[in-house]
Amino acid sequence: MVAVARKAYPGLRFEEGSMTGLDLPDGGLGGVLAWYSIVNLPIEQLPAVFAEFRRVLLPGGHLLVAFQAGDDTRHGSEWFGHQISLDLYLRPPERVAGLLAQAGFAVHAQLVREPDGSSGESGPRAHLLARSPAVAGSGQTV
Prior knowledge:
alpha+beta, Rossmann fold, four-stranded mixed beta sheet, two-stranded antiparallel ribbon, 6 strands, globular
């Protein structure tokens, strides 16, 4: 996917890494997009991931996270004709919002939408928009 992105957008920088240890400086990003990237992580790993997102965000930076909503674990063994072994964790949006709050984020918006029947989605999708804390005395709202 990164190779496709680099080819389609040669002027942008794309990096690969682990969400639990991003090779980025503290406060170096204005935003983080985690688009269905937390769905294969057990709930126990999310606090470390969200702490890492907060670490790399500027004060007041934004985080947008999307995931399948629910309270279930599904195991996949085939995808697009390929054999796989992958767990998919569906989570209640309130639980993810609570974990974001524990990591110091303020959730500003939450959207839970029904599945798009034309794309084969099987359940609701959640989207949470959060901000990292702003620096006190900077003129930004804390």
